[in-house]
Structure formats: structure tokens, C-alpha cells
Asparagine synthetase B
Amino acid sequence: MLRSLSILLLLLAVSAVSRASTILIPMDDTQTDHLKAYGITYWVLNNNIEAWWLLNYRGGSFAFQHSRAFERECLTRGVKYEVIADARFNGILAEIADPERNMDAMKLEKAPKIAVYTPDYNFREGTEVQPWDDAVTLVLTYAEIPYETVYDTEVLEDKLAEYDWLHLHHEDFTGQFGRFYRSFQNAPWYRRQVAYQEELAAKNGYEKVSQLKLGVVKKVKDYVGGGGFMFAMCSATDSYDIALAANGTDICAEYYDGDGIDPNAQSKLDYSKTFAFENFQLERNPLEYEFSDIDHNPRQVTEEQDYFTLFDFSAKWDPVPTMLTQNHVRTVKGFMGQTTAFANDYIKSDVLVLGENKPAREARYLHGQYGQGFFTFYAGHDPADYRHLVNDPETDLSLHPNSPGYRLILNNILFPAAKKKKRKT
């Protein structure tokens, strides 16, 4: 009798093991909604379940333990998934571990807490939107990934220590209000923007907006140095580094701060203080819609030729850039912005170029390390809208669920989940 019971228990145990299974979310061309797939993975992590990021396996697929709840969530969000036996998943891991394969399996441990640096005011009269949208907040909302917002006061009060990942919304950190003066000086939203920023500067004890923004970029630099992850797009990339290089030297014309530019401003730039760029020249015409020659302008690239190629890194030796370049394509359609591309000549040698239009000698996607943390600069405004202008309606991402350009943003959002390190506060 005891022998029969032991055999029955063994058979039940074997049966339970054989039923153990894993949900695999493929991220190759078979995926129905690449963007929401990131949201599913974030949701799983947020439920205190670890996940795998299978680098270079079927477009950078995700995997986690099977449950009916996870399966229902995939169905609800329209994300393609496969339920596979654990034995098969272990076989996939063995295939990935083969030293001859340029793949790696990265364990994702904890959902990162996300902050978006963005103003809490609305510019356009009669509506609830600003005169431009922001790709990161659009894709976070579409992918159903939660985030909180911070702005200058919160940054200056050291609230960034509460977050794992920070996005710098479309911003001019030089204090020149985007250099929109010539085109929009009489627009109500522009006048309210200037008034709001000046009021915010005074509230925080600064005489000028440029001084306020310098205080902010220094706090962000400290955040990164202490182990934070910072992501910036469009004008928040080059204007951030320009503000660091200027370090209080007056580079703002009278239109923006009431007095003139320091005539020796160019020679006073300190490139050792910047994250990504060096040896650039400031744009001297204060009415030009450009901050410096970091932005590759004028470009000799037509819309039909505007593509950039993602570099192929060694997954096992260079997991960080490999994570950031996961995609179902290697060539991504370019898109414009106030800062559209980075001239190769001004990129520091220790900064990784992740995506480049080689014939045009311009980079579109950069990554680097500062202190214990990391930063990523992504040129352009909206990956799904080639020429997105002020006052254009926001992009409907349900029409672009497989956007390779938007996937690069979401790679950065999940990147901190693969790191478990203490940050200085």
C-alpha cells in the first residue's frame, strides 16, 4: 500500500512538473503590438514577478512564468504570446547561452519608478494640451506604464532620488525659451510660457530663467552620477550639454533675459562638464531656431533617404548597448525635431553611438555613463511623425503599434529593471 501511494505521489509530481509553463512574448515580426508588449512586461514586474529579456532572440523577446492572470492581460491588451513548457524554455536558455550565439538572457528584477520632467501648465488657450506633445509620455500612456511628473521645483528639492529613471521632456535648458521668439513672440502660449518660467525662477531664488535651468541640469547631473538613468530627446539633449558647458556664462540675448550675451561666451565654454558633446560652436544669431552646430544643420538628407542603422553589439560582452538597441529591424526611419541629429565631429570619444546615418556622418542615438549612472540622448521629436510641428495634433500610437523608433524609447525604460545597484541620495 505504501509503495502504491509513493508511486502515485511521484506520478502526480511528474505531471505537475510537465504542466509547468512559461509565457513567451515574441518581439520579432510576428508580434501584433510591440509597444504594449513592454507594458505587459512592466506590469508583470510591478506584480513582483521576475522576467527574462532574451537579447537578440526573436527581436528581443520577453518571458515570465505562466499564470492565467498574465495570459488574460496579454489577451486584453492585444499582445501576442506563446505558452511553452518549461522544458522548452530551458532549451531556449541553453541555445542563448551557446558562446557561438550573439544572444544573452537578462533577468529583469524590479519595475523601475519613472519620472517625467515636464511643466504642469497648459500653453494653448481653450484646450488641455501644450502646443507640442512628447514622444515618451505618449508611449508610456499607450503602453500603460505608470509614471509621475516632476519639474524645476521638485528637482531642486532633490526629489529625483525617489526615482530610478528620468525623462527630460522637450525642453530648452539654456533659458532661451526654445528660441521661438521670432516665430511665436506674439502667441499667447509663448507669452504664458515666458511668464511662467520667470515666475518659477523667482520662486526658487533665481534672477533669470537661465540660472534656474543651470541649477536643474546640475541636480540632474548629480542624480545620474549617483546611479540614476536619464533619457532625453530633441532639444533636451544638446541644450542640456550647452547649459553645462556655459556654467553660468551669459549666452542669452536680450530677447530672452533682458541683457546682452557675454561677448566672450564661446571661449568660456567648458566642455569637460558636458555628458556627450565637445568643441561645438554656439549659434550667434539669437533669432535662429538653433542652439549650436551640435545639431547637424543644414542636413543634406532627403526624407526618402532619412534612415539610421542600429549598431550590432556583442550581447554577452556588451549587454547594456545590446539592451538599448533591441528591435525587430536594424534600420529605423529617421524623424525631425528641433534637434534632429548629432554631428559626429562633436561627440566625445567615450560616448557610444547606438544608431547612425553613416553617409550623412550624423548620429541619432547616443549612450554614455557618468559616475554610477547612465544617460541616453535620442535625436528628433516623434518617431512616428517625420515632421512634427508646433500645434500639430498628437500622434495616435494605436496606428503605430510596431514602431521601431518608439521601441528604442521603451528599451530605455526597461533598462533599469536589469540593474540592481544602490544609488547615492
